[in-house]
């Protein structure tokens, strides 16, 4: 794989819109409006101007224009079947512009526009026409394109007026093999329909401008027709805008997929290099793998690998590439230096301890300061255009450096540097492990034990680096460390979002509980699926901010003794107190884990009973695993963030499609009714009776009300917004029976159902009265819509404890921490049961999302926006309750339930 694969130019970024697509869109618009030629200019963000992308005309347009001019205007090639009449039309581009045109039928009736469908288009070269040359740019108000951009309106202009307004300062007119007679200029405005539907309206941006031109003066109609043609051109340009926006979305999606593929390849390369040790303990093998890895990721013209032996206090240059050629003999006889001979290297690595990136050829001052780094065994690198130094850090110690140079400018980008830093950390761990292995190899009795331990490390590292799910990775980490140190408990703590406390994310402890059915009828607690966080484990929390743990986060490792454990327990939550006080823990090894300078969390390993400390080699093993695990955790977090971003993008795209389908489906019916009955009134106005007028007006009013209700639902859903937005609620005591009676009276559906209210007048809830009535009204509306006429709809209310309601919750509303976060309070459970056709199991959770209706409901004549249940659930949750589909049986009906906290009946309050 060449370096250009990683650092090369993104071709998609250079060509936002494919040229064949632009030509096709332009050709279709020319055919639609019978134009002889056209050009399209699109906004270029790099320069902030409109740039002409394509300029085309019909292949036979030039011959047709020449024929028209030779035979005269009386034999123009645009014959019509209707009689012509002369008229003077003022085109309101400005007050001075006036021309004389001939009135005809619309352009769509022209034989010319019909024949254009079969006429090919050709590109117009600058030699043929100096107007609208591809690649030329226009600022606002400059020429026709800039004027349309500035005014954001379509307009028509004759060529002579164009020359007078925009080319008056030119001594010679622009060269054209055929001079256009007039122009139709149309802006391309960005579509903001989805933003408006989501309640986030914004001004439509200008994507570009289309200029249509004609070689023969038009035979037009009245000013009304000219205005209509402008409006039609604007409407047609919306199709072009949508096509361009869809093309942009597809290109963005392709970029994201390419980035994901690149990330996967990075991770595969990292996994390959991580497997080098301990399968091979040869330093030469490790160095070769480093060089092959680096050369596959970035462009390399020079490379120098330097190691520092702290025992001998010496620097060793063990590998070098000079101007693309390997420096032979260093593996067998490395260059040895004292640290006093390399003061710049020593300062940068042992004091600064950070990467160094600059261009020696362009930054001569830095090249002079770091001359020591740029010269030596790998030749003179001061003329290179890119230089990168990466320190090989093991916790707070630097054991060496990797220096890279390239003749390319900006050869080392942020993403590639991150991959190289990860590789350096893996290599650093490998080199340190190599040293440990070589030291212990001399002791025969310890060799087998060390070999087994290294195998365990390799297994642990493989299990950690082979997954990209953060929770699964951490579970593998704690289980591997527990197995290596032979302990029965190991926990990983990560800082909360506010960094106020440490929250347990993964815990390893062999379970002694066997899950069996004890006959109580209670559901068996199932463990979370692999890769999903355990909510019960997350209840273990320790204080962090302002405690000694925060100050010790930069240490290599430390132990917590009983006094420290008691101090933490006093400030911990209930879960933390149980963990520290009732688990029999006496001493804990705490290993801070960081990726570069970013703190990730603590690995907590309690010592075996009776022991205060672990053996040094066990601690070293844990530290080595944690060093690589930190990189793996960070990589997994980045991968999940990208996966979530891609999922959000897919969700937004799906939501857009669902909204467009739902909106068009629901808006069409009332709009059709309004249009149809209005047309009937118009045609029958002379002979319509008052009863007919009243009937048509009633139909129009009903359709308008349906349209108003749909818009109101969309607006209300947009105002509710995301789940973390606070609502303006007035919480008070609400009588359930009174709210239900008001809801029945507020039903707008012409119901032929029997509604039964089985509610005790003494039941009161704590909520917002209008919202409670709205929830009941929406649930009753749904029940009456989808239940056969004459059936019974039952509304019941029951006083229960929260623990009694919890087993009734649906899967999407179930929460094992519900009773831990709340007391076992009394609640009122309200049920609305109908006799409808039921809801399919696959749709029972989706119906609570925005713009979602069950598939079978789309085949019924009942109208709906798919927002009612979404709004109801948000209202109930804002009042500290839950709403769910408790039961649904095909062709037997559904039961929707919700609960809210119960309160006592107020003495002096009448609902």
Automatic annotation (TrEMBL):
GTP-binding is among the record's keywords: no
Alphabetically ordered keywords of this record: Kinase, Phosphoprotein, Transferase, Two-component regulatory system
Enzyme Commission numbers on file: 2.7.13.3
Key word Transferase present: yes
Residue ranges, annotated region (Disordered): 63-82
Alphabetized SUPFAM superfamilies for the sequence: ATPase domain of HSP90 chaperone/DNA topoisomerase II/histidine kinase (SSF55874), GAF domain-like (SSF55781), Homodimeric domain of signal transducing histidine kinase (SSF47384)
Domain Histidine kinase, residue spans: 662-904
InterPro entries reported for this sequence: GAF, GAF-like_dom_sf, HATPase_C_sf, HATPase_dom, His_kinase_dom, HisK_dim/P_dom, HisK_dim/P_sf, Sig_transdc_His_kin-like_C
PANTHER family membership: OSMOSENSING HISTIDINE PROTEIN KINASE SLN1, TWO-COMPONENT HISTIDINE PROTEIN KINASE
UniProt protein name: histidine kinase
Organism of origin: Dictyobacter formicarum
């Amino acid at each position: 794989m060449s370096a250009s694969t990683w650092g090369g130019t993104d071709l998609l970024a250079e060509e936002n819109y494919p040229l064949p697509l632009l030509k096709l869109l332009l050709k279709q618009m020319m055919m639609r409006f019978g134009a002889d030629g056209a050009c399209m200019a699109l906004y270029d963000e790099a320069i902030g101007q409109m740039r002409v992308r394509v300029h085309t005309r019909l292949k036979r347009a030039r011959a047709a224009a020449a024929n028209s001019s030779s035979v005269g205007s009386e034999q123009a090639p645009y014959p019509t079947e209707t009689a012509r009449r002369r008229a003077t039309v003022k085109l309101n581009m400005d007050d001075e512009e006036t021309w004389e045109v001939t009135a005809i039928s619309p352009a769509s009736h022209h034989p010319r526009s019909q024949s254009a469908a079969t006429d090919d288009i050709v590109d117009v070269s600058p030699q043929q026409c100096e107007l609208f040359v591809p690649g030329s740019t226009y600022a606002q108000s400059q020429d026709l394109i800039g004027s349309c951009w500035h005014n954001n309106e379509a307009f028509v202009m004759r060529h002579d007026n164009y020359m007078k307004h925009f080319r008056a300062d030119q001594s010679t007119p622009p060269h054209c093999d055929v001079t256009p007679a007039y122009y139709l200029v149309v802006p391309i405005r960005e579509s903001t329909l989805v933003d408006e539907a989501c309640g986030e309206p914004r001004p439509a941006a200008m994507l570009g401008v289309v200029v249509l031109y004609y070689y023969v003066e038009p035979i037009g109609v009245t000013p009304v027709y000219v205005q209509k043609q402008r409006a039609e051109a604007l409407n047609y340009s919306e199709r072009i805008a949508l096509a361009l926006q869809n093309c942009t979305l597809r290109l963005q999606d392709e970029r994201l997929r390419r980035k994901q593929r690149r990330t996967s390849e990075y991770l595969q390369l990292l996994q390959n290099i991580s497997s080098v040790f301990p399968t091979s303990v040869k330093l030469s093998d490790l160095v070769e793998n480093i060089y092959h890895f680096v050369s596959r990721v970035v462009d390399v013209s020079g490379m120098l690998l330097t190691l520092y032996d702290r025992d001998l206090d010496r620097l060793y240059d063990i590998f070098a590439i000079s101007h693309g050629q390997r420096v032979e003999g260093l593996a067998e006889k490395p260059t040895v230096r004292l640290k006093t001979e390399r003061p710049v290297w020593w300062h940068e690595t042992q004091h600064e301890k950070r990467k160094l990136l600059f261009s020696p050829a362009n930054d001569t001052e830095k090249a002079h300061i770091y001359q020591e780094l740029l010269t030596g065994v790998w030749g003179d690198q001061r003329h290179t255009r890119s230089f990168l130094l990466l320190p090989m850090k093991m916790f707070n110690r630097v054991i060496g450096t990797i220096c890279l140079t390239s003749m390319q400018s900006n050869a080392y980008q942020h993403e590639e540097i991150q991959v190289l830093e990860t590789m350096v950390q893996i290599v650093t761990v490998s080199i340190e492990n190599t040293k440990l292995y070589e030291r212990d190899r001399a002791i025969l009795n310890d060799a087998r034990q060390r070999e087994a331990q290294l195998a365990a490390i390799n297994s642990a590292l493989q299990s950690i680096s082979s997954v990209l799910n953060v929770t699964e990775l951490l579970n593998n980490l704690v289980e591997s460390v527990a197995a290596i140190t032979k302990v029965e408990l190991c926990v990983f703590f990560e800082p909360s979002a506010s960094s106020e406390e440490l929250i347990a994310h993964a815990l390893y402890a062999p379970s002694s509980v066997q899950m069996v059915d004890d006959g109580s009828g209670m559901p068996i607690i199932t463990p979370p699926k692999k890769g999903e966080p355990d909510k019960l484990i997350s209840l273990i929390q320790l204080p962090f901010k302002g405690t000694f743990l925060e100050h010790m986060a930069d240490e290599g490792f430390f132990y917590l003794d009983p006094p420290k454990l008691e101090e933490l327990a006093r400030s911990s939550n209930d879960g933390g107190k149980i963990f520290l006080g009732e688990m029999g823990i006496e001493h804990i090894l705490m290993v801070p884990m960081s990726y570069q300078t970013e703190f990730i969390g603590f690995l907590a390993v309690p010592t075996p009973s009776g022991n205060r400390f672990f053996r040094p080699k066990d601690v070293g093993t844990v530290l080595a695993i944690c060093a690589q695990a930190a990189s793996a955790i960070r990589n997994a977090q980045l991968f999940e963030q990208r996966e979530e971003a891609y999922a959000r993008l897919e969700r937004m795209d799906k939501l857009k499609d669902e909204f467009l389908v739902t909106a068009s489906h629901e808006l069409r019916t009332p709009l059709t009714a309004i249009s149809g009955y209005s047309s009937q009134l118009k045609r029958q106005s002379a002979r319509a009776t008052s009863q007919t007028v009243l009937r048509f007006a009633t139909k129009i009013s009903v359709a308008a009300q349906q349209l108003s209700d749909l818009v109101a639902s969309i607006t209300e859903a947009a105002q509710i917004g995301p789940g973390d937005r606070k609502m303006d609620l007035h919480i008070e005591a609400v009588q359930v029976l009174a709210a239900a009676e008001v809801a029945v009276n507020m039903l707008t559906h012409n119901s032929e159902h029997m509604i039964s209210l089985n509610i005790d007048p003494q039941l009161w809830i704590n909520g917002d009265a209008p919202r409670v009535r709205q929830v009941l009204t929406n649930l009753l509306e749904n029940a009456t819509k989808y239940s056969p006429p004459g059936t019974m709809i039952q509304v019941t209310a029951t006083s229960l404890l929260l623990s009694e309601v919890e087993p009734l919750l649906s899967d999407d509303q179930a929460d094992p921490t519900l009773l831990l976060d709340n007391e076992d309070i009394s609640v009122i459970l309200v049920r609305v049961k109908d006799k409808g056709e039921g809801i399919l199991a696959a749709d029972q959770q989706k119906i609570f999302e925005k713009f979602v209706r069950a598939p079978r409901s789309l085949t019924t004549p009942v109208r709906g926006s798919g927002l009612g249940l979404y709004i109801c659930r948000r209202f109930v949750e804002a009042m500290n309750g839950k709403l769910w589909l408790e039961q649904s049986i095909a062709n037997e009906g559904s039961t929707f339930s919700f609960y809210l906290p119960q309160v006592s009946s107020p003495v002096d309050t009448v609902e």
